Amino acid sequence: MADSRAPETSDDQLVAAARDGNVRAFETLLDRYQVKVLRVLRLMGVPSRDREDVAQEVFIRVFRHLDGFKAGNPFAGWIYRVAVNATYDYHLRTGRQARDEVPWDAGAGERAAHAGPGPEREAEARGLRDRLEAALGALSERERAVFVLKEMEGMDTPEVARALGITRITVRRHLGRARERLRSLLDPSDRGRG
């Protein structure tokens, strides 16, 4: 039986149509990337109260600079770069560091390991996620951006390098530092080793 669904329109096709004034094509790009952009903003330390505003700023920048997007390059990497730059600008504008709203709870990991099934287990999993997000605030903005794009958004090293405008070696260096700092923050038994 043949698949009757039309193939999904590529990002390149949508960008080309949006450049030609097709509002629906741009809305489709917004729909496709809105959740991802909001997640990156959250992981980059933009507080929930400001996240929608910064996301709107990201999409305004994307719309204004669509002509700067080079077809054939991954659109996701380009929009992530815009989102990361918007978070840098946000932190400069507000005088904030990339800190998360969640307090770090050193005992959450151990409690999660012993939690039973059900709501308690879900709460502990949320606690672990919150601890990771809070620990991300201890990283430099560049380390945080590299870690978020590589480890949490699943981009490969060349994509991260392109998205952030840095070399692959610099990506690996920042990723190594980020992993080391996060390991020491999230695993209290690792402190003092080394």
Brief digest:
This protein is an all-alpha fold and 194 residues long.
What string gives the helices and strands in order? HHHHHHHHH
Number of strands: 0
Largest sheet: none
Radius of gyration using CA atoms only: 19 Å
Quaternary structure state of the chains depicted: single chain
Question: Could you list the spans in which at least 5 consecutive residues all have pLDDT below 50?
Answer: 98-116
The proportion of strand residues reads under 5%
Q: Tell the overall outline.
A: globular
Compute the number of helices.
9
Query: Could you tell me the mean pLDDT?
Result: 82
What does this structure look like?
- With 194 residues, the protein is mainly α.
- The protein is 68% helix and 0% strand.
- It contains nine helices and no strands.
- The protein has helices at residues 11-19, 23-43, 48-64, 75-94, 108-114, 119-136, 141-152, 157-164, 168-186.
- Helix 7 (141-152) crosses helix 9 (168-186).
- The longest helix has 21 residues, at 23-43.
- It is globular, with a radius of gyration of 19 Å.
- The protein starts with 10 loop residues before the first helix and ends in an 8-residue tail after the last helix.
- 26% of the residues are buried.
- Residues 98-116 have low confidence and may be disordered.
